[in-house]
Amino acid sequence: MFVVLVFVPPLLLLVSGSLTEPGQPPPPTPRLVPDPLSVTGYQEAFPLGGLARATLNSAVVAVCAVPLSVLVASWAGFALARASRRVTAVIVAASLLALMAPATALLLPRFVVFRFLGLTDTLVPLIAPALLGASPLYVLIYYLAFRGLPADLYDTCRLSDLTPLQTWWRFALPVVRPVTAGLTALSFILTWSNFLDPLVYVYDRDLFTLPLALRSLAVLDPTNFPVFLAGAVVATVPPVLVFVLAQRWFLHSDDPTGRFR
After folding, report:
1. Among 81, 65, 192, which residue's Cα sits nearest to residue 142?
2. DSSP helix/strand/coil, 211
3. Residue 63 above 90 pLDDT?
């Protein structure tokens, strides 16, 4: 209920502002129901900001990057949970140090690498970090989840002559479904809203993602706020839907029917 009270009113005001007639001065007080209602903001936002193409580009990046991030992070977290204590301590310490480094400090070396490979001005630099699990945080979360499983589970799998990959797929990963749901939602939201990486690597307007398209709308006409808010609504709907689906997965993670598994 607290989350609803915090997030729903701004979303309602966002939708309300997007349905305001463009060209009108902003109302002195926020209105939940603008008068008159108009969808002109949406009609102008798509051609002006190239939202259709930008939405497709963002979807391609998210569809490729999010599953890869979760998959690689779960592999790395599982391997870390089954490694020796000395190896685990070293890798966890290195991961924590990596998390302390600011993201902007990695932009220059990554840009040099992608430029040398001829991958700038493509969507590849936006997807490639997923091959490393995207963030050490994802790996550490999976490591804690897998480490918390009973040792008897791993012993039983070992006695059954299951390979580590079979143990991960058949037993360990299904038990940590809530962690997978949470990390999937987090990865999607961070990928979908990523502004800095597309700004650095993408120059062709046809390859713009939604954050860059929204920036284009913001600088075209800062006073025509319904057009920009219409674009913001388009960019906000997918993360909200993913959050709702992830919450549903959380609530039904112990469903005995297995319908949500």
Report:
1. 81
2. helix
3. yes
